[in-house]
């Protein structure tokens, strides 16, 4: 069922008009199990939202809120892998909020996308508590270095709100025992961990390395509301085999390839030790 995209707190510099058909491409994710409309110019989803979605231990009937959902790639991938979850997305850019709703609808996935910023969430979001809150917070990019046609991409990456605010909002929207999972650039890990420690417990860190010989470029960080457990740093997730890219070769490691091509889950290592307390298998 198609949902209306409700818009609030629109910033005048953001794009408000919907994307025209010739401004979009439709790209396969999860081996074609889900198809995502994306702008040719501007923010385009990469591997980050797919890995984020695959790492979420949601089950049918549970509620999921994504903060800053962009074009909805993470929500669509998660809802495709786990039918029956109840999805809500929040996105501050009206054009992207509408695109996210379209991507859910066109893939036959239930969910509502609301256009608002984190500083003033809609009442119907504030009144709810969710089993999972997920986010891929934007990062700083100098607007002066970005062409006008890609201004919405700069907005999506500008990081106007500190990570502390993102995590605080996520914590407030969780049920007791609920799970917050963020994916973020590795160079922002100190700030992200500080924010998580202030609001959440039972933290788990999963570094993501492009190759085994290279430093982490991304991290997945998970915490639980009103839960206590020792901090866990897991062995790294490695995306690619070998030390360098071979032309025209698919070098993804086996478990990552299964996520990207076959919609498989990417569970945190030893996560069942923690989730057993919530009655999960």
Automatic annotation (TrEMBL):
Domain (Methyltransferase small): residue spans on this chain: 51-144
Keywords of this entry: Methyltransferase, S-adenosyl-L-methionine, Transferase
UniProt KW Secreted keyword: no
Top-level lineage group: Bacteria
Alphabetical GO biological process terms: methylation
Stretches of the chain forming a coiled coil according to its record: none
Any matching Pfam family: MTS
Molecular-function GO terms, alphabetical: N-methyltransferase activity; nucleic acid binding; S-adenosylmethionine-dependent methyltransferase activity
InterPro entries in the cross-refs: DNA_methylase_N6_adenine_CS, SAM-dependent_MTases_sf, Small_mtfrase_dom, tRNA_Adenine-N(6)_MTase
Protein name (record): Methyltransferase
Organism placement in taxonomy: Bacteria, Pseudomonadati, Pseudomonadota, Alphaproteobacteria, Rhodobacterales
